[in-house]
Specification:
The chain has one domain: Zn-dependent exopeptidases (Aminopeptidase, 3-Layer(aba) Sandwich), CATH 3.40.630.40. It has a five-stranded mixed sheet, covered by helices on one side. The model has no long low-confidence stretch (mean pLDDT 89). The chain starts with a strand and ends with a helix. The chain is α/β, with parallel strands linked by helices. The chain is built from five helices and five strands. It is globular and about 50 Å long.
């Protein structure tokens, strides 16, 4: 099963977009509360927003699956790695399912991210990994650039070119630093 998408960069800069995934397996989707099915906490279109960075040589590392399957910004032992509040009453995953999700989604993603980071370190001697997503900072070994969906989406959740250009200008300076 594919857990990520990689746009391989030509510079020692890797942008991790851990909340961009949108795929939810049918067995999980069927048990979710309706208000979470639209993925209100996802960061859609970040690959589009950060296309300028990829064209400048940065790598983009993106999940396939939504953070409701496994939150990739959480540590393996974090109880919020598999969120429980998104399920209909009595439909929450049990401990076995949580362990299986870590093995099937979280671990392969983290391993692939570490492999790409190691490849860049070997090629360039050093690498800068930046996690860009809405929400709190993730792992200590990554720089975090917080962002809000309202920074680049309109009120209906559609990509807003004007807002995106403003955010791209802000991000361009941060990525160059």
């Amino acid at each position: 099963m594919k857990t990520h998408r990689l746009i391989r960069g030509t510079k020692p800069l890797l942008l991790s977009l851990p909340h961009m995934g949108a795929c939810i397996p049918p067995d999980i989707r069927a048990r979710m509360k309706p208000e979470f099915l639209r993925l209100p906490d996802a960061d859609p279109d970040l690959d589009r927003l950060l296309g300028f960075a990829a064209r400048a040589g940065a790598g983009l590392f993106m999940p396939v699956h939504a953070r409701y399957v496994a939150d990739l910004t959480r540590a393996e032992d974090d109880p919020l790695l598999v969120p429980m509040d998104i399920y209909k009453e009595g439909e929450e995953p049990d401990n076995i399912e949580c362990i299986n999700r870590i093995a099937a989604y979280w671990l392969p993603y983290q391993e692939a991210l570490a492999e790409e980071k190691a490849r860049l370190q070997k090629e360039f001697g050093a690498v800068r990994v930046i996690s860009i997503h809405s929400g709190a900072a993730g792992f200590a070994d990554m720089q975090h650039i917080p962002l809000s969906r309202e920074d680049y989406l309109d009120g209906s959740g559609a990509y807003d070119e004007e807002k995106a250009l403003t955010l791209q200008a802000r991000l361009s300076g941060l990525l160059a630093a």
